[in-house]
UniProtKB/TrEMBL annotation:
It comes from Pararobbsia silviterrae. This is Class I SAM-dependent RNA methyltransferase. CDD domains: THUMP_AdoMetMT. Keywords: Methyltransferase, RNA-binding, Transferase. InterPro entries: RlmKL-like_Mtase, RlmL_1st, SAM-dependent_MTases_sf, THUMP_dom. It comes from the Bacteria. Residues 49-160 form the THUMP domain. Residues 320-363 are annotated as: Disordered. Coiled coil: none annotated. Pfam families: RlmL_1st (PF22020), THUMP (PF02926), UPF0020 (PF01170). One of its GO terms (molecular function) is rRNA (guanine-N2-)-methyltransferase activity. Residues 320-345 have a biased composition (Basic and acidic residues).
Amino acid sequence: MSSFEFFAPCPRGLEAALAAELRDLGAHAAITVGADVPGGVHFSGEWSAAMAANLHSRIASRVLLKIAARPYRNEHDIFAFALEQPWERWFTANQTLRIDVTAIKSPLRSLEFTTLKVKDAVCDRLRDKTGARPNIDTAEPDVRIFVFVTATDCTLYLDTSGEPLFKRGWRLDKGAAPLRENLAAGILRLTGWTPDTPLYDPMCGSGTFLAEAVQQALGVAPGVQRRFGFEKLKSYDITAWQTLKVAAMDKARAARGANVRDLPIFGSDISGDMLEKARANLARAGVPTLSLKQLDARNMIAPSAAPGILVANPPYGERIEVRGRGPRGEARPTARSERGVRGERGGYGGNARGDDDDAPRGFERAHADELGAEFFLAFGSALKQHFAGWRAFMLTSDRGLPGQLRLRESTKTPLYNGALECRLFRFDVVAGPVRRRDGDAQDGAAADH
Ligand SMILES: C[S@@+](CC[C@H](N)C(=O)[O-])C[C@H]1O[C@@H](n2cnc3c(N)ncnc32)[C@H](O)[C@@H]1O
């Protein structure tokens, strides 16, 4: 049996979590985990290691087979390098192709031109060996080649995943700002959560943390509902794959009948629409629908007697606003109502030039900021009062969150939500008096800020 080298990319900040997860996959296939580098983890093993990682990794974004690596100086070197590779071993000229080039600090002048050169090299190679050239299909290719270029070296990878692995196949209903499934799964791993510990997401939106947690608790493989790129490669060993897949399907079938009362996993959100999406997503993820509550997070109380882990990515920035009633009982703007309110203000706040838009929008933003600040203060209070003994993890791009909550974080871990740089703040909520900024103590429970 041959051994191959693989690279599994993942959201930045989750490399160590992914390396630990890949080590745990030893139950499904022999995997030797190598170095984790910014953006992913190297590992090696037989072909079954790639199949198992695709099926079972909750954190990897893809699994790439390393074809070859070599120093280069320019696009022509990369063309010659790609032309030498025995692509005919992996796929045929009847299959469609997509090439992606990623470069870090490279001297290449145009990535588009480099992509074209690699495409030409692969197509020329196939034509020379088989008499036919493959077609390009950037939307739904049969085969994807990834080229990774640094200042000095070029590495060619063949993708074994197809669609990225965070596409589990269960999400149809997205919220306004859903988390990627593999980022949610990685965060769960960073929290140290285990299925016997209570887990609560008080702003669960479309239910990404919940679906990932329930699937993990019930041992449902994240990839059980989807197809993979390796199924289209010549090396596809259908018998070995069926063995892995049938075992995963048996587990998934058993999960459908699991008793939801045995799962200490809880979710709530202020939006009934979002809860509907979460329920639909949980149903499609093939797990029992949890009992989800419609609740303003400022009014939350601990959902279990035993302390556990609270996890959330609260609303932030332009993409999604805090909702609920303001301190004086006024409704907070939502994406839809905000437009209506803006229209009304334009009616009396406009000027003769008709350029009345900026002032009301600035006013709206200030108003939303004020409501947001009030929300986080009240949310922090609810944490202190009702969650003593819990550990709370919050993912946000707002570095001022601990100040807004009046809580001091125990740790903060940089993580990327797509291109957005975020922090995962951890707060250990301890019983004790809350010290106000003016120095007076008041009753409650808190890690003081
Ligand atoms: C960034 S989204 C969370 C996305 C979620 N993790 C997912 O994967 O879909 C923030 C969520 O906070 C909810 N939210 C806004 N204000 C709230 C409030 N006052 N109480 C509870 N939830 C609120 C929104 O409805 C939204 O679903």
